[in-house]
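>> received
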Amino acid sequence: MDDKQKIIFLDIDGVLNTPKNMMDAIEKGIFPKGNIPMQTVSKDCVRRLRNIVEITDAKIVISSTWRMTMNAVWRAFAWCGWDNPPIIGKTGVGNSRGMEIEDWLKKHPVKNFVIIDDDDSDIHQKEHLVQTQNEIGLTDEDCQLAINILQSA
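>> returned
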């Protein structure tokens, strides 16, 4: 991997998928039992993520629990009109999100990365973290902070 590559470690719940979106899906009757529906992601939040990618030329690594069902990730992005997001992988399963990211970085050394997540409790790379609010998801302010982190190295 090119050490100049920019990586976004992406959580989905609380970043692209908010409780409001999930409630809307339940109320519309489109929440299949036992399945993560693509309609629970916010098109606005996905648009904001796409903006970060376009401005910084970053690639995405899924660090969310959604990584266990990557087909749902691809379908959710496609549902939002983003057919080919630059997803290059996913983190492994470990004891904490921060350690999973650290393990991925050991195998794919890059200097320039951002972690977009709504929960910072198990992330020790705080200087690379953009913490979203679970109820709101990815905001314009979060995007600017992520862009600043990715362009700072």
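>> The beta strands are 6-10, 59-62, 87-90, 112-117, 129-131.
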